């Protein structure tokens, strides 16, 4: 049997380059480990279905959205290094009470991603992003671009529970064992530059912009079209599951700015969906763009801001970027 490296041993070896930041990641991991346990038996405990409330995004909250959010609040609240929690499920940033000068970190999270897949027992996840904040920070100080993230990752609750983590330079994967410990199972994840698998909600075709249409048409044409190779399509409907597949074997994920989501700025949320996934994908050698620029450089204007998301294997993202460059130039943008 190989010797096992636990997440806490790995963090103790200095992976975070800062013990306080390591403790933030450990608190997030503890929340995810507890969410994994709750999910496993949720139908027995009567935790399926709706909570009967609507979140700030106007979406019906599931009971498990609320429970997962509460677990993030519990575990992060216990760590004095964390002063602020931004969550998909909270209208406003939650400020933890800390002693003067304590609490240098903020966590932005999607406590349960893909919750429409809960009732069909398909992989869901938790997504997180860690930023530094000055003590007593006002709301404006929370609105930092993704380039400022100190750590980011997600937990994927699938046939095993994976914790995928980056501090911006490389990507490591941990698997939850039967004792509730995360064990290092892969390190130095590299997304293949070339791929022949794309993920998009194709039912939205009538809303797509020209660049998305051109990219998908080329892919559907396969070896008979400009891409010159046959493609496969996958859409789980849980961003965590779609991005996990892309990190493990390559591919591209698109939730572009379409005519229906344009007024809101897109579908997915910048600070706790797009930014953490973009940091992971770039750290693994992939690319992440809105079609108009790098996601990580978008300046947020609100904690729940939405954004267009196109990320994954470098060559595929570059192909989409070429279509955007051409169509935006034609439109004089
Ligand atoms: O309903 P659609 O258009 O397939 O969108 C699916 C996308 O919405 C999301 O479910 C949004 O996340 P939440 O479940 O956290 O609201 C993503 O995980 C997923 O990629
Ligand atoms: Mg989500
Ligand atoms: Mg969610």
Automatic annotation (TrEMBL):
Subcellular location: Cytoplasm
Residues given in the record as Mg(2+) 2 binding sites: 110, 113, 273
Biochemical pathway: Carbohydrate biosynthesis
Binding site for substrate: 113-116, 201
Fructose-1-6-bisphosphatase class I N-terminal domain: residues covered: 20-186
The EC number(s) this enzyme carries: 3.1.3.11
GO MF annotation list: fructose 1,6-bisphosphate 1-phosphatase activity; magnesium ion binding
CDD domains according to UniProt: FBPase (cd00354)
Pfam families according to UniProt: FBPase, FBPase_C
Protein family membership: Belongs to the FBPase class 1 family.
Full protein name: Fructose-1,6-bisphosphatase class 1
Species assigned in the record: Devosia geojensis
């Amino acid at each position: 049997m190989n010797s096992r490296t636990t997440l806490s041993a790995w963090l103790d070896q200095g992976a975070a380059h800062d013990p306080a930041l390591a403790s933030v990641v450990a608190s997030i991991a503890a929340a995810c480990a507890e969410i994994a346990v709750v999910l496993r038996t949720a139908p027995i405990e009567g935790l399926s279905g709706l909570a009967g409330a609507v979140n700030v995004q106007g979406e019906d909250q599931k009971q498990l959205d609320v429970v997962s959010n509460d677990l993030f609040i519990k575990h992060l609240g216990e760590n004095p290094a964390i002063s602020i929690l931004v969550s998909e499920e909270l209208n406003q940033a939650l400020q933890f009470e800390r002693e003067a000068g304590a609490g240098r970190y903020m966590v932005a999270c999607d406590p349960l991603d893909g919750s429409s897949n809960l009732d069909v027992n398909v992989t869901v996840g938790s997504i997180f992003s860690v930023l530094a904040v000055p003590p007593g920070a006002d709301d404006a100080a929370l609105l930092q671009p993704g380039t400022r993230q100190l750590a980011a990752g997600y937990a994927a609750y699938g046939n095993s529970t994976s914790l995928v983590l980056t501090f911006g330079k490389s990507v490591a994967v941990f698997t939850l064992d039967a004792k509730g410990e995360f064990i290092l199972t892969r390190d130095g994840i590299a997304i293949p530059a070339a791929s022949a698998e794309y993920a998009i909600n194709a039912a939205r075709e009538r809303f797509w912009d020209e660049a998305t249409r051109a990219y998908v048409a080329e892919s559907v044409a396969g070896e008979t079209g400009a891409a010159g190779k046959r493609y496969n399509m996958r859409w789980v409907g849980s961003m965590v599951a779609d991005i996990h597949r892309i990190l493990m074997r390559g591919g591209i994920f698109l939730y572009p700015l379409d005519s229906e989501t344009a007024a809101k700025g897109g579908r997915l949320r910048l600070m706790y969906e797009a930014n953490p996934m973009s940091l992971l994908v770039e750290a693994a050698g992939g690319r992440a763009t809105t079609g108009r620029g790098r996601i990580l450089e978008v300046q947020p204007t609100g904690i729940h801001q939405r954004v267009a998301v196109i990320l994954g294997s470098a060559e595929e993202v570059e192909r989409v970027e070429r279509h955007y460059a051409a169509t935006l130039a034609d439109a004089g943008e």
